[in-house]
């Protein structure tokens, strides 16, 4: 018989940010496909897709800075920083778990706590996403929103074609990430356990 205890992992500001961000990502992806493949996809008009894409983009940018301010002010930004002393060894254990251990019922080598929320693979992925890739996507989107107004900066970054290519490649990356993220979220002790935790704030720890 296993012992179950609830651990408060996700504070309310994080949960609110998460669902606003997730909703924004879905809308940006849908409208992005409509804009990119307007000749093939027609679930809304191109002008409407552009308008929604722009407004949602600004909402996601504002939401990002709320997230950044919260984590910097609270000091919790450290949960994204891997411990360089053991990151390689722990990452190898996590890969072994995802590749084999999970299929034979072995326990997850990472025990989630408020101070140690992410396993080493998650830390490295989210560190790159939240501090490099997402800012790059937001900046490229902002420049593409008003090309004439930011023409000088666009040229400094290599021109409109390069900027557009970066934006589109990151668009495909974040689309793939959304599917992978949802799949990995089903790997709790039940398929919906982690989803439930992002509403209640409490993760269920089984011993």
Q: What would your notes on this structure say?
A:
This protein has helices spanning 12-36, 46-74, 87-99, 120-145, 151-156, 160-184, 193-200, and strands at residues 4-8, 202-206. With 207 residues, it is mostly helical. It has seven helices and two strands, in the order βαααααααβ. The chain is 64% helix and 5% strand. The longest helix is centred in the N-terminal third of the chain and has 29 residues, at 46-74. The protein has a two-stranded antiparallel ribbon with strand order 1-2. The termini are close together.
Q: Under CATH, the topology is which? A: Fumarate Reductase Cytochrome B subunit
Number of domains: 1
| String of helices and strands | EHHHHHHHE
- Order of strands, widest sheet: 1-2
Mean pLDDT: 93
User: Number of DSSP helices?
Assistant: 7
CATH architect. name: Up-down Bundle
What profile does the largest beta sheet have? 2 strands, antiparallel
Which class in CATH terms?
Mainly Alpha
Distance between the termini: 9 Å
- Based on CA atoms alone, the radius of gyration comes out at 19 Å
Q: What's the name of the CATH homologous superfamily?
A: Transmembrane di-heme cytochromes, Chain C
Helix content: 55-70%
Task: Count the beta strands.
Answer: 2
Quick one: overall form?
A: elongated
Strand content: under 5%
> Which structural class do the helices and strands define?
mainly alpha
Regions with little confidence, pLDDT below 50 for 5+ residues: none
């Amino acid at each position: 018989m296993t012992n179950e205890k609830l651990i408060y992992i996700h504070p309310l500001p994080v949960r609110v940010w998460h669902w606003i961000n997730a909703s924004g990502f879905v809308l940006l992806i849908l409208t992005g496909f409509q804009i990119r493949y307007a000749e093939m996809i027609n679930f809304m008009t191109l002008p409407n897709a552009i308008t929604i894409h722009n407004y949602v983009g600004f909402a996601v940018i504002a939401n990002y800075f709320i997230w950044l301010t919260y984590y910097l002010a609270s000091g919790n930004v450290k949960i994204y920083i891997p411990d360089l002393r053991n990151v390689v060894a722990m990452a190898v254990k996590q890969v072994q778990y995802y590749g084999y251990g999970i299929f034979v019922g072995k326990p997850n080598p990472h025990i989630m706590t408020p101070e140690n929320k992410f396993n080493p693979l998650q830390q490295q992925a989210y560190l790159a996403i939240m501090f490099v890739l997402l800012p790059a996507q937001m900046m490229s989107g902002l420049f593409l929103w008003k090309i004439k107004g930011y023409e000088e900066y666009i040229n400094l970054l290599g021109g409109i074609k390069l900027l557009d290519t970066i934006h589109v490649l990151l668009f495909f990356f974040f689309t793939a990430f959304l599917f992978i993220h949802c799949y990995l979220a089903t790997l709790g002790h039940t398929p919906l356990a982690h989803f439930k935790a992002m509403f209640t704030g409490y993760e269920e720890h089984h011993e």
